[in-house]
Amino acid sequence: MKREVIEIITPGTVTVDSAMPQGHENMLVSICVGQSDRIGLAGLEIATGRVVVFEGNGDSAMDKLESFSPQEVLVSDAADDSVDRRAERIGAQVTKLESWRYQDDYAAERIRTYYNVHSLEAFELAAFPLAVSALGSLLSYVEEMKFAAPLHLSHPRFAEDVDHVYLDASSVRNLELLSSNSSEKKEHSLIGLLDFCRTGMGKRCLARWLVAPLKNIDRIRKRHDAVAVFVSDTDLRSEIESLLANIADLERLSGKLGYRKANPRDLIQLRNSLQKLPAIKNTLSRCNCQLLAEIAAQIPDMESVAVMIDRALVDEPPLLINSGGMIKPGFNSELDSLKGSIKDAVDYVGSLQEKLRSETGISTLKVGFNSVFGYYIEVTKAQQAGVPDYFVRKQTLVNAERYITDELKQKEELILAAEDKINRVEETVFLELREELSKHIVEISNAGRLLGEIDVLLSFAIAARKFNYTRPQLVSESTLEIIEGRHPVIEQLLARGDFVGNDTHLDTGSQQIQLLTGPNMAGKSTYLRQVGLIVIMAQAGSFVPAQSATIGVVDRVFTRVGASDRLTMGESTFLVEMNETSRILNNATPQSLILLDEVGRGTSTYDGLAIAWALCEMLHNDDRLRSRTIFATHFHELTELPALCPRICNYQVQVRRHKDRIIFLRKVVPGGCDDSFGIEVAKLAGIPSSLTRRAKEILDELETGKFEPLKTRSKYHYINPNQLGLFEQKESQSLKRLQKIEIDSLTPIEALNVLAELKEQAEKEHGVKN
Fold it and tell me: Which end is more exposed in the chain, N or C (fewer Cβ atoms within 10 Å of the end residue's Cβ)?
């Protein structure tokens, strides 16, 4: 038996179906780091052959890398370790490549050779040397791992597309578009909610549409038209749904052809799927819908390919190509001749048992075959006396003896030799068939892509009917008008009818910034996210969870939601918060949507308030920004901003106080909230009543200006008498007082007075005088 290595499997080059969930893209990405904070990326989804490239500054490139969710990242062994750490943080395996693979000339030649082009201008890559280096190194690596150049890789396309909304990695994560931050259940994410796709192509297409919604109004409206047709026409919806249900993953099948791994059953799946294309084309072409008719017209005619497979392969072939029994009679004359040559031998063996029983008188005699000993004649121990002399003993069993004859041995050798040759010829015929089919990889892949788009539009329609979504209106003006909007995911997690819908109105003329106040748990973050999700759903082509929605097309969606840190990268919660805020300010435009939640909370109260105040002013006054913005905050001082910035409007999430408790009404209404209800929320969280009672006493003293920490004995002060200090230290009264102050409960005037008193007390304690 000949043994050899035929490929090397790595996380980014694995092509085994069981290792790749149907809707998942298994991305391999190569990174090339250049000068002046420029980075080039090249990504490959090897199962489908999709190739993307990108070149930009460090932050945008790392955002793009995270959005790819790669399983493996290729990096030059001369690159800085910070790239490795970033790749590892998102869960990718880092593979080091020799730096020469990233050299300009070498990489460019690899690209020209693989795609058989004279110049990189064919792909508009000449102006992007880092992307070229990344792509060249990636092609080199894949060919080395696969021991051959794959045949199915698409032409490289730029990941930064001017036709699509820009969503950075933090926004995709914060809005839980592809996965939930708090649950492993897929249905707790937007894609999990909207995924009614019947095909693997559709599931992957849905993910791409959600993270890259459209900006072109005409294209968005075409998608909405198609969804509307599927929503209203039950028969059409059911027919297309039924046709798609048994379609194989054509994109991945084209990939298997490309890396020469398609087996006989794969080709039968391909045949069965291609045979359904005419019915899908005919059904869609009859629709009164421009987009569906356009898609139907683009579906390639694959009848000849289906016929080619049908003529060659039996309906239920074996899995392995060397097993034989997969080629139909009449397809290959040599095979037909070989099969005919062993017919007499097979017929002889088939009739031998009755013949020998008659000749020997042994009624229980059997003729059989196994893969170890070949053909045999079996006679029980009880009838050994009737065995003729020309039987040659071959094997002894407990209750029987097995024999062979010269004639049976000759027939066996004839049959086995012929079967071996048949298997080898069948394997050759199959490989020739597969090679011929590989000429149609592009058509098969395109058919899969188009069916995926149909699948997503149908999925949107199913979701719209199931969840009572409405068609949004897209306009070119910078406005946002949502009536009774709902968070699509949370709505489904609650009992029917429990979710409280809310209105949203934003425009760059009179109500550009919505300043949202209210206590924790009131629903501010949910409201922020639902607005972002409704906009993304609308521009992706879906109907939306609202009574009505008029949406001025956005070019970018930015979110600064939730607290997190990146300790492994040396970044605290506050630094992450400021980095994300900086990115927003540097990239937002008047057509952008900005969602900010508690900016400034990661530092001291005054620092945070000052930053939040200045941020609101900048978003309002800087004409380069002037983005539609919702800013949720606990800094109630910010509610004074509308007096200075007329396009800032106060809104609050309503709560009702009942005795010593609060009831969350979940309704967003005009006006500012002047109470954080912190103690009440603490009670709801299960904080001990003794602590909340003491907190209420201190709060009352602070609000009346009677709080005197030095005269107030702490009820929770405890010193272990057995704990000895290393040095005798004088207790700082100013520090004790500072530790007891509830900063969030102080008004600005009270805070300034307390600060002055603390400064004076500290100077006395330490003998310092300015």
Answer: N
> Cα angle at 323 between 317 and 324, to 5 degrees?
65
User: Is residue 604 a contact partner of residue 612, using CB atoms and an 8 Å limit?
Assistant: no
Using DSSP, state whether 104 is helix, strand or coil: helix
Same CATH fold, 471-683 and 173-330+434-466? no
* 654, two tokens: 């309503």
User: Which two three-digit tokens encode residue 488?
Assistant: 């699509």
Q: 27-33 and 38-45 as β-strands: parallel, antiparallel, unpaired?
A: antiparallel
Q: Where are the beta strands (DSSP E) in 321-469?
A: 366-370, 374-380, 392-396, 400-404
Alpha-carbon distance of 185 to 133, in angstroms, equals 39
Q: What is 293-307 written as a DSSP string?
A: HHHHHHS---HHHHH
Instruction: Using alpha carbons, select from 522, 504, 490 the residue that is nearest to residue 634.
Output: 522
Both tokens of residue 688?
A: 């001990």
Residue range 173-330+434-466 forms a domain whose CATH class is mainly alpha
The tens digit of pLDDT for each residue in 26-51 reads 899 999 998 888 999 999 999 899 99
Give the count of beta carbons closer than 10 Å to the beta carbon of residue 549.
Answer: 25
Cα separation, 31 vs 48, in Å, equals 21
Alpha carbon of 132 to those of 26, 127, 308, 576: distances in Å? 21, 9, 39, 31
Identity of the amino acid at 453: E
Do 588 and 513 form a contact (C-beta atoms < 8 A)? no
**Domain residue spans of the chain:** 17-160, 173-330+434-466, 333-421, 471-683, 692-766
Q: Which residues of 512-553 form beta strands (DSSP E)?
A: 513-517, 548-552
Q: What is the pLDDT of residues 439-461, one digit of tens each?
A: 999 999 999 999 999 999 999 99
Could you tell me the pTM of the whole model? 0.82
CATH code of the domain occupying 17-160 = 3.30.420.110
State both tokens at 72.
């493996």
CB-based burial label for 756 (10 Å; 0-12, 13-18, 19+): exposed
